[in-house]
């Protein structure tokens, strides 16, 4: 199909699961898949003009050596730098209602050295649960002005948000007593983000990074 619709790109994520090192213990089906992959990538008569094959893996050293050679460029993508991490926080937060400023976003990028894009996604998802937890744990709510769930341009005066029991406008009730269309979820704050970050550790350690660097030194090529 890629050849029929060229120019085209074939992207294989987790390519190691398809093209791991061959062994005597693997099944005949697995061996045939790898052989066919080799033939299609660079076999006699293969016509791959204007067809780009990309593969991604976190364990490149487990690729079969013959298949590794078929990928002409082997490029190491390092962990995101500070500026990139800040942008990732923005992307993951999306349109979520927050109290975060540009300086807060920059601070988050600075304080997550060693975090991957997936790690940052976990931090944000955990932080997004904080308003839910706050609502579930609340014993008192108060009425405030807020936008309607159905139409953001319509403002109501009787929306309900969690509050302290000592707040002068506090009404004793649980979240189960709050009508769904009247609940105004608290915005995500920097305190929530710091709490989520403190409970999330980076998944890439120094040992992993060293293996990537060694593989790049042995087999890598500049992009």
Explain this structure.
This protein is α+β, with helices and mostly antiparallel strands. It folds into 2 domains: 8-78 and 210-219, Rossmann fold (3-Layer(aba) Sandwich); 82-203, Helicase, Ruva Protein, domain 3 (Orthogonal Bundle), CATH 1.10.8. It contains 7 helices and 5 strands, in the order E-H-E-H-H-H-H-E-E-E-H-H. The protein has helices at 28-42, 65-70, 82-93, 102-110, 117-137, 190-198, 206-219, and strands at residues 8-12, 51-55, 140-147, 155-162, 171-172. The protein has a 3-stranded antiparallel beta sheet, with no helix packed on it. Strands 1-2 form a two-stranded parallel ribbon. Strand 3 (140-147) and strand 4 (155-162) form a beta hairpin. Helix 5 packs across helix 6. The longest helix is centred in the middle third of the chain and has 21 residues, at 117-137. The chain is elongated and about 80 Å long. The model has no long low-confidence stretch (mean pLDDT 88).
Can you summarize this structure?
Keywords: ATP-binding, Nucleotide-binding. The chain contains seven helices and five strands; from the N terminus they run βαβααααβββαα. It is of the alpha+beta class.
């Amino acid at each position: 199909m890629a050849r029929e619709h060229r120019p085209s790109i074939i992207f294989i994520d987790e390519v190691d699961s398809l093209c791991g090192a061959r062994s005597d213990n693997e099944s005949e089906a697995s061996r045939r898949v790898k052989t066919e992959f080799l033939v299609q990538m660079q076999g006699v008569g293969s016509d791959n003009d204007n067809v780009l094959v990309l593969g991604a893996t976190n364990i490149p050293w487990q690729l079969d050596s013959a298949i590794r050679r078929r990928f002409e460029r082997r490029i190491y993508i390092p962990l995101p730098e500070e500026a990139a991490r800040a942008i990732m926080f923005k992307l993951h937060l999306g349109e979520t209602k927050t109290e975060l400023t540009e300086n807060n976003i920059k601070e988050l990028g600075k304080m997550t050295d060693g975090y991957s894009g997936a790690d940052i996604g976990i931090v944000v998802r955990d932080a997004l649960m904080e308003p839910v937890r706050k609502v579930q744990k609340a014993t008192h709510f108060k009425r405030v002005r807020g936008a309607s769930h159905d139409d953001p341009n319509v403002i109501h005066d009787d929306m309900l948000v969690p509050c302290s029991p000592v707040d002068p406008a506090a009404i004793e009730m649980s979240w189960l007593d709050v009508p769904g269309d009247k609940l105004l979820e608290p915005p995500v704050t920097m305190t929530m983000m710091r709490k989520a970050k403190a409970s999330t550790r980076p998944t890439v350690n120094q040992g992993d990074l060293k293996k990537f660097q060694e593989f790049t030194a042995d087999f890598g090529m500049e992009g």
